[in-house]
Write a structure and sequence with these properties.
This protein is α+β, with helices and mostly antiparallel strands. The protein has helices at residues 12-28, 38-46, 49-60, 92-103; strands spanning 65-71, 76-81, 115-117. The chain has one domain. Strand 1 (65-71) and strand 2 (76-81) form a beta hairpin. It is globular.
Amino acid sequence: MEEVNNKKNLSSELSEQLLIVLETRFEKNRKRHKDIEWSKVQAKLMKDSYKMWSLDKMEQTGGEPDVVGYDNKTDEYIFFDCSAESKISLTLHNFYYVILSIVKGHTSCVTPGLCNII
């Protein structure tokens, strides 16, 4: 999957492909998010092209983003990079989300794996 333009949007075709990958991973790993419905996650993702772009970048760099929680206060789904192998280096993009999660008080995001808040 690739970036389409400087506004950090994905084409509709790439967005559809990414949603299929994310839904497949979501269903395969239900233990990570027992009480979360994919349709609600998908609806939020479809409203924010930057967050779709961000998750696509995680995929492109070998990550495997998956939903690991939901924050009732902020109405946000929390994604971690759940790949089996640890990354040798953090990309600036992913590092930003780790810092953002700390600033927002999502201390659970600082555990192993990178996170993205949707």
